[in-house]
Design brief:
The protein has two domains: about 220 residues, Creatine Kinase, Chain A, domain 2 (2-Layer Sandwich), CATH 3.30.590.10; about 90 residues, no CATH class. Helix content is about 45%, strand content about 15%. The protein has 13 helices and ten strands. This is Protein-arginine kinase.
């Protein structure tokens, strides 16, 4: 089987198939570094058609080059759902491409908003591990291709909010405790007040579904990459503690109500014949919470990740082998979820 075919199959990426630090709250960590070539027009002014092959020649053979023009819209959407490319690259890049390693925990987007966007993912709260790998990839490319850099401002990017380090560090978190105890808004305000931002599951412009959020840095200028990652890690330690406190409160004060909610959601996922995206993600969130609190012991975090990923629209169309109407999507989603849970 070719690497490209494997990447587009409904198989969990390695970083979703493992537990990491604080995985009861933090589902994954990601570091993304934006870079542009020196003395070359930025992609917003004109994309470099030859850049994908040029970067492929720098990185080792483990990386698979996939050009957006060679992929169908469905295949590009699959890469978005696996968090390997951005919605921007999927929709708006004429000569866009991505390099993806075999483990699917590192990818380099080419001709996105910037010439290069290097991103590395890790399970749980492992931002420093992701940063180390991303910086290694960046240095390998910089040895062959000089980057646009200003001594006073740092690395230059298409969007001024990325100037400096060009670094976006983010964590994907499951926060049902804070949401259900109505403490999330206060926590989100505190996060924003110290220079971080809370977004939906796909980052900027996306909505929160299933109590899953992305928390990332806003400041890229005036700090080193290590300082940004350290600040986010320390802030996340506070969020993790507050989420665990809220979960304990729910279990102690509302044990029967919580147990009923978890098993109702399990029954819905196990037996429903029609499921919307919102219904499924909310029910999966309940099941996830029940699993972490020991209310429901017959499911793993990896199974939760399968339920979330393989019930998304592009994967459903891949499973069906065709496009589908809204009702058909709901029917296929329910069927896929039942199949995943058949041994539970």
């Amino acid at each position: 089987m070719g690497k490209a075919n494997k990447i587009l199959l409904p198989i969990l990426s390695s970083w979703l198939d493992l537990d990491g630090d604080d995985s009861d709250v933090v589902m994954s960590s990601r570091v993304r570094i934006a870079r542009n070539l020196e003395a070359v027009k930025f992609p917003i002014a004109g994309e470099d058609e030859l850049l994908p092959e040029r970067v492929k020649g720098i990185l080792d053979a483990d990386y698979m080059l996939m050009k957006m023009s060679d992929l169908s819209l469905l295949e590009r959407a699959l890469l978005v759902e696996k968090h390997l490319i951005s919605p921007y690259l999927m929709n708006k890049s004429k000569f866009g491409a991505v390099l993806i390693n075999e483990a699917e925990n590192s990818s380099v987007m080419i001709n996105e908003e910037d010439h290069l966007r290097i991103q590395c993912m890790e399970p749980g709260l492992r931002l420093f591990d992701a940063l180390e790998r991303a910086m290694y990839i960046e240095s390998e490319i910089e040895n062959e291709v000089p980057f646009a850099f200003n001594p006073e401002l740092g690395f230059l990017t298409s969007c001024v909010t990325n100037v400096g380090t060009g670094l976006r560090a983010s964590v994907m978190v499951h926060l049902p405790g804070l949401v259900l105890t109505k403490r999330f808004n206060k926590m989100a305000e505190a996060i924003r007040s110290v220079g971080f931002v809370v977004r939906g599951i796909y980052g900027e412009g996306s909505n929160s579904l299933g109590h899953i959020f992305q928390i990332s840095n806003q400041v890229t200028l005036g700090k080193t990459e290590e300082e940004i990652v350290m600040d986010l890690t320390q802030m996340m330690e506070q969020v993790i503690m507050q989420e665990r406190v809220c979960r304990t409160h729910l279990k102690q004060k509302f044990h029967i109500t919580l147990e009923d909610r978890v098993f109702r959601s399990f029954g819905l996922l196990k037996h429903a014949r029609i499921l919307t995206m919102l219904e499924s993600l909310n029910a999966i969130s309940d099941l996830h919470l029940g699993m972490e609190l020991g209310v429901f012991e017959h499911i793993t975090r990896q199974k939760i990740n399968e339920l979330i990923l393989f019930s998304k629209p592009a994967f459903l169309r891949r499973a069906a082998g065709q496009d589908m109407l809204e009702l058909e999507e709901k029917v296929i989603r329910a069927s896929v979820i039942r199949d995943i849970l058949q041994d539970v």
